[in-house]
Amino acid sequence: QVRLVESGGGSVQAGGSLRLSCAASGQTSNGNCLGWFRQAPGKKREGVATIATRSGTTYYADSVKGRFTISQDNARNTVYLQMNSLTPEDTAMYYCAAIPGVVVRSGTSCSGEDYYYNYWGQGTQVTVSS
């Protein structure tokens, strides 16, 4: 079992920055997929960014590429999402999710589809005003 706890959400103006954190505890391994997903009212949940913890290979949705950066700490039990140049379209509930016990093929990123993720945090709200 894996417990995920998000933090760092809040309200910012367009153009501002925010950094989200996701702390993982419980049964963690060196080979995991960790991802950030978001869901806004009237929209389906979408993958924002993922990282394969063993290799560090990342994936970004086209809508956030160049603005968001996913990273992990040295122990690989905390994942971050640095969000820059925020726009009102980024307003959503942001969730951290994990696929434990996974080692992806070399050069392959973790899936951005929520179907594959087994564990989820409670979410943290991000609101961007114009």
What is the topological layout?
Layout: E1 2-7, E2 10-13, E3 18-26, E4 33-39, E5 46-52, E6 58-60, E7 68-72, E8 78-83, E9 92-99, E10 119-120, E11 124-129
Parallel strand pairs: 2-11
Antiparallel strand pairs: 1-3, 3-8, 4-5, 4-9, 5-6, 7-8, 9-10, 9-11
How would you summarize what this structure contains?
This protein is mainly beta. 0% of the residues lie in helices and 48% in strands.
Q: Compute the number of strand runs.
A: 11
| First-residue to last-residue Cα separation | 40 Å
Q: What integer value in Å does the Rg equal?
A: 14 Å
Helix content: under 10%
- Element order: H for helix, E for strand: EEEEEEEEEEE
Secondary structure class reads mainly beta
The residue ranges in which pLDDT falls below 50 over 5 or more consecutive positions are none
Instruction: Characterize the biggest β-sheet.
Output: 7 strands, mixed
Write down the overall geometry: globular
Task: Explain how this protein is built.
The chain is mostly beta strands. 0% of the residues lie in helices and 48% in strands. The protein is built from no helices and 11 strands. Strands 2, 4, 5, 6, 9, 10 and 11 form a 7-stranded mixed β-sheet that branches. It has a 4-stranded antiparallel β-sheet with strand order 1-3-8-7, with no helix packed on it. The radius of gyration is 14 Å and the shape is globular. The termini are far apart. The model has no long low-confidence stretch (mean pLDDT 93).
